[in-house]
Amino acid sequence: MAAGGARRARRLLVPALALLLLLQSARPAKALENGLALTPPMGWLHWERFLCQTDCSQDPRRCISEKLFMQMADLMVSEGWRDVGYQYLCIDDCWMAPTRDMQGRLQPDPKRFPSGMAKLADYVHSKGLKLGIYADVGNKTCAGFPGSYGYYELDAETFASWGVDLLKFDGCHSDTVDLLVGGYKTMSRALNKTGRSIVYSCEWPLYQKSLQKPNYTEIKQYCNYWRNFDDIYDAWSSVRNTLDWTSLHQDNLTSIAGPGGWNDPDMLVIGNFGLSWDQQITQMALWAMMAAPLLMSNDLRHISPASKALLQNKEVIAINQDPLGKQGYRITKDHNGFELWERPLSGGAYAIAIVNRQEIGGPQAYRFFLAFLGNGLACNPACSIQQILPTSRNLGLHNWISFLKVFVNPTGTILLKTVLIEEKHSLGIL
Ligand code: GLA
Known about the structure:
Layout: H1 3-24, E1 42-45, H2 47-50, H3 66-78, H4 81-84, E2 88-90, H5 117-126, E3 130-136, H6 152-162, E4 166-170, H7 177-194, E5 199-202, H8 204-208, H9 216-222, E6 225-227, H10 236-248, H11 250-256, E7 262-264, H12 277-289, E8 294-296, H13 305-311, H14 314-320, E9 329-333, E10 338-344, E11 350-356, E12 364-369, E13 382-389, E14 393-399, E15 403-408, E16 413-421
Helix pairs in contact: 3-5, 6-7, 12-14
Alpha-D-galactopyranose (GLA) binds next to loops.
């Protein structure tokens, strides 16, 4: 098309697309006002990799103990994790003693955490990190340890007195909606009342789903992030199902996410056993697209240099942490199994992910029209495109009516970033 024709077409299309954009961007929901999680929290969480080994004589290197967390804290600093943003070191289930103490307080297992939680928190803080802990809204945790039901205020005070910075609050053994919803709200207020800054991670919508439709506007007023879907496993099928569930419900999910409140598709399992290299790239790219909390569950003592570099990739982390805080969404899925996702970033930039969901054959070509991106605005009139994953490279300048062709490995992803070029600077390209 001649430059004049392109400009005329653009003049007609742009107002229509801008209206569409306006209709799509519902008023942001009110977030929990604790001033925390203005970007998705980043850190490490023990569950997927270490589960519930409580017998340290059996497996001293992998049991849930203060030693494990101190080792991870050391590595988070010495191996550069903290410096790229992984800040929260989080304990999951199975840290507790089987009963509360004489005053009714939760206590850590004395054999596995002999120094106590306040000491562990001090250690973690001395490294410039923050400590996360786990409890449950019902009368037992999922693994059968004491639950917080009936003790919400006391438990919040206990965690604050230890110097805890994040609480993952699970939803096992909450059989009624009243208990579940009431419990999550009460704990949120109780944490607030302690006066300590404690990020509040909820599994409220996941457990509510089997009882009734979760009210996300309400959830966002009480939680900093929340799990919607099944526990993640170290397997492609699990990552795939999480992505499918998220894109199926993306209209509800993306309208609610933003600074202070995030959808949590669960832990990053990169660096473990189950994902191929391309699948690890897909998890990292799509968790960045989804503005997901980046909580790794892996063994930082044994991680390949490639997985480490992927998890520490600053360009991908910058997309995840983009201050605009808009969650990305899938814009198309074609009959060949290709998915095209986009995420609006600050300054008119967009992150674009092309996922090849085929599990047969080799790398396949995917060709797409840049005018489709960002409701027609991402490359309008022109943009520069940077490939970020699998490798970083500059794809040059493009105008809004051009096509881009990429090759994507089976189950892999190409992650790109478009940066808008203003009309006055784009004359040479149009
Ligand atoms: C549930 C949660 C998991 C983990 C386990 C611990 O299944 O969804 O993330 O916390 O409980 O028992």
